[in-house]
Amino acid sequence: MKHLPRVLIVEDEPAIAELIQVNLKHGGFSPVVAYDSVAAQRELDAVLPDVILLDWMLPGQSGLSLARHWRKQPRTKSIPILMLTARGDEPDKVAGLDAGADDYITKPFSTQELLARIRAVLRRHAPEAVSDSVTVGGLTLDAATHRIAHQGQELRLGPTEFKLLHYLMKHAERVHSRSTLLDKVWGDHVFIEERTVDVHVKRLREALGAAGPMVETVRGAGYRLTAVAAPKTAAAAPAGK
Ligand code: CA
What we know:
Blueprint (H helix, E strand, L loop, with lengths): L5 E5 L3 H13 L3 E5 L2 H10 L4 E5 L7 H10 L8 E6 L3 H9 L4 E5 L3 H15 L7 E4 L2 E4 L4 E4 L2 E3 L3 H12 L7 H9 L8 H14 L6 E4 L3 E4 L16
Parallel strand pairs: 1-2, 1-3, 3-4, 4-5
Antiparallel strand pairs: 6-7, 7-8, 8-9, 10-11
Helix pairs in contact: 6-7, 6-8
The chain binds calcium ion.
């Protein structure tokens, strides 16, 4: 029997949860509903889903703090999280991505959009079919084992940051626009805003630690991974501190 991707829906509104559940079933997924953070955690402890749909506003622990928590746990840290937010909560979306969500979707959304987003995060998260390893400067990435090391020291990256770094390393020293990165890394950028790229680049730099400056911002153009990061000169510092 074909494996249906398991989707954990964390949503406290029964009507919305049920609607999503029915639509996901029709869309070829295996949905499970949790109405609060306690039930969601119990579900995760029992069976790991392929993707989590996480409502922002939940009674008790918020979706944001749940996302942050799950990202820190070894068992759950690589499960893609799609946040559900209310219309117009712009700062919330960025905070959600900062907390470790892979994407967000604004309520009310169409079934078609929801299914497309879920498929997109799953595709992004799917292991690379072709195994290859690439080295730039002191940075080595092995796609087969999903390992990244900087000067021999292993680094830990989220699934989206891994794909982003993989692409940047395979095409190092070249400048990539945000829209190119969305195309090549996200693969389905119809619904994704360009600043999503900025959020993930920021997270990537943080995860790379000492190698973070290798990911350069090219003003007005995009991003580039370089083996030799430009040295910061005193002259370039902003005047009038
Ligand atoms: Ca809610």
